[in-house]
Design brief:
Layout lengths: L3 H8 L6 H11 L5 E3 L5 E4 L2 H12 L6 H14 L2 E3 L6 E4 L1 H8 L29
Antiparallel strand pairs: 1-2, 2-4, 3-4
The chain binds a DNA duplex (10 and 10 nucleotides) through α4.
Family: Belongs to the ETS family.
Protein name: ETS domain-containing protein
Main location: nucleus
DNA sequence: ATCGGAAAAT
DNA sequence: ATTTTCCGAT
């Protein structure tokens, strides 16, 4: 039946993407595992294994850990969703300018077609005082 | 801790 | 296409 697969996927969190999940926790001010830093778009993973556990629960992957989660984050580097803040432990930064450009068709449509579709559904985006 | 290749899974 | 899994190198 139509919707069955989607339902099952949703029930085990199959549809959600990692960076959506991160923005969700950050927007909610989840506090413990992950939080914004003082730099715009930058976040610090305060409890890597806890974050991995939460991510694993969402995805139905009981053996998720930070080693594997962080590999997924590194795949975001080339996709220009994230980059690492070098020298700051467990610290990454979102490419908000790119994200915003994709979401504001007013600007040239000629930039690297980087980002997905689901942005409007993210809990709190753009973050509190992001300068559009 | 962080990186990125390779292969498998979804 | 986006992870997940595994792992050797830095």
């Amino acid at each position: 039946r139509r919707g069955e697969r989607e339902r099952v996927e949703r029930d085990r969190g199959g549809g959600v993407q990692l960076w959506h999940f991160l923005l969700e926790l950050l927007g909610r001010g989840e506090g413990g595992a992950i939080g914004w830093s003082d730099q715009w778009g930058e976040f610090v993973i305060r409890d890597p294994e806890r974050l991995a556990q939460l991510w694993g629960e969402r995805k139905g992957k009981p053996h998720m850990n930070y080693d594997k989660l962080s590999r997924a984050l590194r795949y975001y580097y080339n996709k220009r969703i994230l980059h690492k803040t070098k020298g700051k432990r467990f610290t990454y930064k979102f490419n908000f300018s790119k994200l915003v450009l994709v979401n504001y068709p007013t600007v040239p449509h000629s930039l690297p077609p980087v980002l997905p579709h689901a942005l409007p559904h993210c809990a709190s985006f753009p973050p509190p005082s992001f300068p559009i």
